[in-house]
Structures are given as C-alpha cells and as structure tokens.
Amino acid sequence: MAMKKIGVLTTGGDAPGMNAAIRAVVRTSLNYGLEVTGIERGFRGLYERSFIKLTSRSVSGIINRAGTFLKTVRFPDFKEYEVRKACYENLKEEGIEGLAVIGGDGSANGAYRLYNDFGFPVVLIPASIDNDLYGTDFTIGFDTAVNTAISAIDNIRDTATSHNRTFVIEVMGREKGNLALEVAVACGAEIVIIPEIKISNEKVVHLLKEQEEKGKESSIIILAEGAGKADDLTAFLQRELPEREIRYSVLGYIQRGGTPTYLTRVLATRFGVAAVDLLVKGQYPYMIGIKGNELVHIPLGEVISKQKPISDAYLEIVSRMAI
Ligand code: F6P
After folding, report:
1. Fewest beta carbons less than 10 Å away: which of 53, 138, 293, 302?
2. Whose Cα sits closest to atom 13 in ligand 1?
C-alpha cells in the first residue's frame, strides 16, 4: 500500500541549510499527497513524542535561515535499544511510515539503527559543517561554514600582515580535518594541522623558520580542533621562537551559523527532494549524496562503516603554495 505519512527531523550539530532541507522534504512530500510530521529536537523529540504537523506554510520564509526550526539536540541515549524501541513504537502510533533524518555522522548511525532493528524506512540527508561523511563530496552547510571561516581569517590576516605576526587559527572538526583543509587552501594558509595527519610542534617550528628564511614575515596556521588546542600550540611556538609575535584565535561556533550560501541552499533543496523521492519509491536505507554534480544514493551501512578519505592533493597544495 502506498505510503501516507512521512516524518522529518534534524539531529546532531546544527548546520546552515538544515531549514532549506526541511522545506524541500515537506514540499516534495506534499507534492506526492503525503502528510508530513515534523519531529522536534531530533531523536530526543521522537522519544518524547514531540510531533507537529507541517504544511507548506510551516516552511515559508526559512530557506535563507541557518539553524533548524525543528531544533536539534545530541541524544546519546538513542544508543540504547530500549530507547530506540520506544521511538519505533512512537513512529508507528503516529502513523509515520518513512523518516527523513537530516544530520551528520552521529545521525547516520542513529538512522541506520532504526532501520537495522525494526526495518524502518529511513533516508539520511547529510548536513554537517564537518563534511566528514563517506559517500558524498559535500554535506549541507559545509560551503557556508568555509565561507564564514574565510571571511573571519581574511580579517585576521590584515593584522597578521600589519604586525608581522604569526597566527594559529583553530577551526571546528572534532575528529576530521576536512573543514580545516578546505579553509587552509581557500585562505592561503602556510601550514595546516589536521587529526588525520598530525605534524609535531617541532615540525611546525621548523616550517616557520624555513618560511622566514624565504622572506615570509607573517604566517597563518590552520589547526583543526581535533588535532590540538590553539592556546597550547601558540604557547609552545612562542617559547621556541621568542623573537616572533604569535597570537591565536578560536573561530568556534560562528562557523555553525550565518546565512546559508547559494551552494548550501541548492544542495539542501536537491537533497531534500531526492530523499523523499527515494522513500516514496520504497528505497532505503540510503544516504543521499553528491558526486561531481550528480546526485547519488549510498547504502547507509556503507556510510557508517567507511571513512571519508582526506584529500592528499589539498595537503600538497597547501605546502606547494607556502613557498
Ligand atoms: O559536528 C559539527 C561540530 O561543530 C564539530 O565540528 C564540533 O567538534 C562539534 O560539532 C561541537 O559539538 P557541540 O555543538 O555539541 O559542542
């Protein structure tokens, strides 16, 4: 029998473009004649039965707003089978027959478990400023976060250049360096330090000395938060290079907000439409992704068990540009 109602939720860290994705899910579903239930606060709201009926008007005027109007929380209790079972019962009781989950790697795991335990139809719409999900070139929000970081770092570079200072700039990315690496290439950073390929503090000192010999008077070091703390690295460098002025900035949560860029909005909308198309066709559990400019769908089991590789080419570019 054809599906009548789908649910949509956002979970994990918020990312610009989540609202645009919800809008696309809702309106595509309505196009199919489906009812749509919004689940507030992610899997936690599913557990607590925080359901709202969504209409086309519920998602008016949100394509340009970052964050998620459905709200999001991190909900570690979802790792417990009993909690998931209660969530599944809630879905059934509410008459929800398919679920669009919008979020990052933790969300992928949660969505997969819901399928794996109960066979529930789920599709993941990848949204995370980290861009760390296997199977897609880009996640929703990444482009916006990179642009936000670029504009902040461009401002910092003005001071770096004027004072001949070295700056350590910590960007987000707890486990993965994709954001840091992209930002490093885009900002013309001299050095990038990411969790996947850590370089020792001594090596950083060596590189800075080398660059100084080539006439560089200021340097930008991009540090992914998962690879160390900006204050620690700065203190070390200042001890080793006392004649230099070394400062640091932690970009933090400014990277998670801000008006979604054109690329983020278009990606979010395309992903939202494609996710509902898949659910309606009875195809699950998949993650929607993009390869080149083509939409793809990847089995969720693969997404959660494989690692997105770091771009060696980008790493090489950073070092080749730092002459
Ligand atoms: O996954 C997105 C992200 O912003 C990471 O880059 C960061 O490490 C983490 O979330 C911070 O999590 P929280 O919002 O729970 O502090």
Report:
1. 293
2. 13
